[in-house]
Amino acid sequence: MCHQTVSLAARHLEENGIATIVMGCAKDIVEYCGVPRLLFSDFPLGNAAGRPKDPPSQAFTLELALRVLESVPAPRTTVQSPLRWSTDPSWKLDYSNIERLSPEEIQRRRQEFDRQKEIAKTVRDAPRAAN
Amino acid sequence: MPFRPLEKPLAECRVALITTAAPYQPGKGDQGPGAPYNAAAKFYTVYSGDTAVDNDLRISHVGIDRVHTSAEDSNTWFPLPQLRRCAAKGRIGEITPRFHGAPTNRSHRTTIERDCPELLARCRADGADAAILVAN
Fold it and tell me: How far away is chain A from the Cα of B54, in angstroms, using its nearest Cα?
């Protein structure tokens, strides 16, 4: 949802005169929506701005985003960060991969998903505070 | 596909930061490092915060990779401190006075018809030339 939301927002801003760069870890979603500029880091979701506790990686990632923002010649440009999360790529197979979950774990996650959905509905429908 | 090239050097641009992270809300369950998905901490309307101060933003309310990241260093999803350093050394002109929070509504229509125009209005009010959007 995050990647879809920021992709739609980037398109809207760009249509209205504000240049954008999306920083993300889910290339498929952003490219499916289609945005002017994407800096893709092939990292676990939640690390679009660099590796945790690694300030040089964070500085490098933002600088790369700025370079993409100022330099790409045409929309739908994806630049992939050269940084790697790990020398072992097996982490990529774990996210929401039903093949790697037991039937009990799938059942537990279903129940938890439904429970969280109900909580979310309560939050969404609550009177909204001004902000 | 919309495309708006920068019309001036980044060193002269005012840059906005947009995040899907949420402000920490005491009493709304575990939002700390390693927290499970926590829908109670979600938000459903655009919010803004002061870029001149440090902000405690969390990502327990969205679908991050909880196996391979623990969400303990907010600089991996909210690069405001790093963007401030870029402004200090003149890499960008300045940061807009506010950053903006984009709600992850599970509805195209809500995002497109309500949230996107609100984000645009706030970026315009802040005089943004460009925006950095960080997804989670």
Answer: 17
